[in-house]
Amino acid sequence: MVRVLKVFFLLVVVLVGLELHVKNHQLVVIDYYLGTVQLPVSLLIACMLLLGAVLGVLVNLSVVVRLRRKIGELKRSLKSVDQQLTRGQSITTLKDAS
């Protein structure tokens, strides 16, 4: 069922993209320091959407890496506590910093 929804969503995105291209096929001139480029409006919109998606992934990547590192630390701590419990040792509790 999930695969069918993914295919349906992809089909809708492709159809919307084709409709956008058909309605907006005019050329746009982009001037920048090294020269100029002429692109169809639809291609420019698609490139900007892709650039935004890539930048969004890069921004969130730091958060994901930090959280995965924290998960690793917590797993190691849990393993240590489990080992102490299996050996019958008492577990030292952390005091609040307040």
Would you list the SSEs in sequence order as H and E? HEEH
Q: What class do helices, strands and sheet pairing give?
A: alpha+beta
How are strands sequenced across the largest beta sheet? 1-2
Please state the CA-atom Rg, rounded to the nearest Å.
Answer: 26 Å
- Identify the overall geometry: elongated
Oligomeric state: single chain
Integer average pLDDT = 87
Number of helical regions: 2
Percent helix, as a range, is over 70%
Regions with little confidence, pLDDT below 50 for 5+ residues: none
Number of strands: 2
How far the N terminus sits from the C terminus, by CA atoms, comes to 51 Å
Tell me the β content.
5-15%
Largest sheet data: 2 strands, antiparallel
Number of structurally distinct domains: 1
